[in-house]
Amino acid sequence: AFAGSRGRIFDLQTVAQISPNAMQIVGSGSIDRKPIRLTETARLVREGDGWRLAPTGLEFAGGTARVSGLLGGATPEIEANVARMPMTILDIFYPRLGMGGVASGNLSYRFPKSGAPSGKADMKIRGLSRAGLVLTSQPVDVAVAGVLNGSSAGARMIAQSGGKEIGRAQMRLSGIATQGELFDRLAKAPLAAQLRFNGAAGT
């Protein structure tokens, strides 16, 4: 059992069965007094230097997610699908992030430690907002589509408020390196981007 506060108050109970080449995990609890639970046993099997996660369901505050992939090893990979998942779940990993809204869509990536990464994201976030110490931004609806393919990556975003489009953005990375950590590769790649915004300053 785990309880405490890391951006949000949480109380989690888990039971795990562990052997040298396999793990089974069940769990439930609450985050910010909202229920969270694994809808089925999470099953991981040793695969090389990593662990293969069988498709596993998660429910949180009315939202759902289904995740599978290879954790660790020479070629980590993830497949995820979410439906009406509250953005507040990100506070588990990034305390006091303060994001609001619900997300739906899918995400996949494959990241060889040495070689060309690949991935795809297609997400929609309704009522996206961020709370600060004093102010909370006005909620907007955001749609994001992105592709990572070897040495290049691209993404497009559309933002709407009150049913009206208030912003568009697009970006492209080229010459992505084939060695190193993924975020380091992306940060060092040449970037071309465009942004148009016609909304309230508090958005």
Summarize the structure.
By secondary structure, the protein is mainly beta. It has 1 helix and 14 strands. The mean pLDDT is 87.
Q: What secondary-structure arrangement, pairings included, does this model have?
A:
Layout: E1 2-5, E2 9-19, E3 22-31, E4 34-38, E5 42-47, E6 50-60, E7 63-72, E8 77-86, E9 99-110, E10 118-130, E11 140-149, E12 152-161, E13 164-173, H1 182-188, E14 191-197
Antiparallel strand pairs: 1-2, 2-3, 3-4, 3-5, 4-6, 5-6, 6-7, 7-8, 8-9, 9-10, 10-11, 11-12, 12-13, 13-14
Structure description:
With 203 residues, the chain is mostly beta strands. 3% of the residues lie in helices and 64% in strands. It has 1 helix and 14 strands; from the N terminus they run E-E-E-E-E-E-E-E-E-E-E-E-E-H-E. Strands 1, 2, 3, 4, 5, 6, 7, 8, 9, 10, 11, 12, 13 and 14 form a 14-stranded antiparallel sheet that branches. A hairpin with a 2-residue loop joins strand 11 (140-149) and strand 12. The protein is flat and about 55 Å long. The N and C termini lie far apart (39 Å). The model has no long low-confidence stretch (mean pLDDT 87).
- Low-pLDDT runs of 5+ residues are none
Can you give the mean pLDDT?
87
The portion of residues forming beta strands comes to over 45%
Shape: flat
Helix count? 1
How many strand segments?
A: 14
Termini separation: 39 Å
